[in-house]
Design a protein that fits this description.
Elements lengths: L2 H37 L9 H21 L4 H29 L2 H27 L6 H5 L3 H11 L6 H16 L5 H4 L2 H14 L3 H13 L8 H15 L4 H15 L2 H13 L8 H16 L1 H6 L5
Helix pairs in contact: 2-3, 3-4, 3-7, 4-7, 6-9, 7-9, 7-10, 9-10, 10-11, 10-12, 11-12, 12-13, 12-14, 13-14
Length: 312
């Protein structure tokens, strides 16, 4: 090979490197996002609530940055949907409950709006994620009533692997409604989130320790006039699938079903079971820590029992 032909090949290589630089960065970023999603479950093994809280908010900032760089990446959209819903329930709602217990109305309202915004942001990213299943934008038209959203979900969500995606979008949707009870137009779309959770359960009822059944159990016990028999069926199925080791199921069983039934004895017994549980599910240690924190609150402060309407 002559010197000039060597230079030509080096020049061609340099041009190719310049041309593929953007692609290489995109590939590396995609791999980083995928790796972040694969490793994100590690935070669930933490036992320290405060450490987990700091890690969760820092993690959201990182994922938001990844989404900025790769707005079409579905792994990032999934993580943002899940993360904003998770911090909304696990940490911001906790701040609301503490302020509510203290009788600090201003702080309670502040944290209520924060929780609402967290679920709304999770729902926003969830809607983007749904759009990748139907690029035509059909979801917006489908959400107009119960029958159209159910038909859309059956058309575009057909595989068990899609169940977790629907679970988190539905959870964000229902959480947003739960924190917006004074906004009729938001409450009026509760059926959309419920349909997503139901479809998720149809595809794979075991996802995230049968959380779909737990959510539906709480949904069907949203008022004393709701479908309490249906609620109990979902809670029983969730407990059957997770063996009672995922303590959020028992927490919600007490706080929703037994509360609406007015069964104080079962309410207290179930919450005490949550508190008495050991490290029964290390891979969901954080969720169980949060459940114990709430159970202790609901047992220890009369304000929560008054909200259930228990007789003195």
């Amino acid at each position: 090979m002559t010197f000039t032909s060597g230079l030509a090949k080096l020049g061609l290589t340099a041009v190719l490197m310049l041309g593929t630089g953007g692609c290489l960065k995109a590939v590396l970023l995609k791999g980083q996002i995928k790796g972040t999603r694969d490793g994100s479950g590690a935070v669930n093994t933490l036992h320290d609530y405060e450490v987990a809280r700091a890690a969760a908010f820092a993690g959201i900032a990182q994922i938001e940055g990844m989404h900025k760089l790769a707005p079409e990446n579905t792994d990032a959209l999934f993580m943002l949907t899940r993360a904003w819903s998770g911090v909304g329930f696990g940490f911001i709602e906790d701040e609301y409950e503490l302020a509510y217990e203290r009788g600090d109305e201003l702080q309670a309202e502040y944290h209520l709006l924060r929780a609402r915004a967290a679920f709304e942001r999770g729902r926003f990213y969830g809607i983007e994620l749904l759009g990748h299943q139907d690029p035509s934008g059909g979801f917006e038209a489908a959400r107009r009533n119960d029958s159209t959203i159910r038909a859309w979900l059956k058309e575009y969500y057909t595989e068990p692997e899609q169940a977790e995606e629907l679970l988190w979008v539905g959870y964000a949707w229902i959480g947003h409604v739960s924190q917006s009870k004074d906004v009729p137009e938001i409450v009026g779309e509760l059926y959309v989130g419920a349909a997503m959770i139901e479809r998720s359960v149809e595809l794979d009822e075991t996802v995230v320790y049968a959380t779909g059944h737990t959510i539906l159990g709480a949904y069907h016990a949203r008022t004393a006039q709701a479908e309490l028999d249906e609620s109990k069926k979902h809670f029983d199925r969730a407990l059957e699938l997770n063996g009672g080791k995922f303590l959020a199921t028992k927490l919600n069983l007490a706080k929703s079903y037994y509360c609406q039934k007015g069964d104080r004895e079962a309410y207290e017994r179930t919450l005490n079971e949550v508190l008495a549980a050991g490290d029964v599910l290390p891979e969901a240690r954080l969720q169980n820590t949060i459940a114990k924190r709430r159970a202790r609150r609901y047992l220890g402060n009369k304000i929560w029992q008054d909200e259930c309407g228990f007789q003195k």
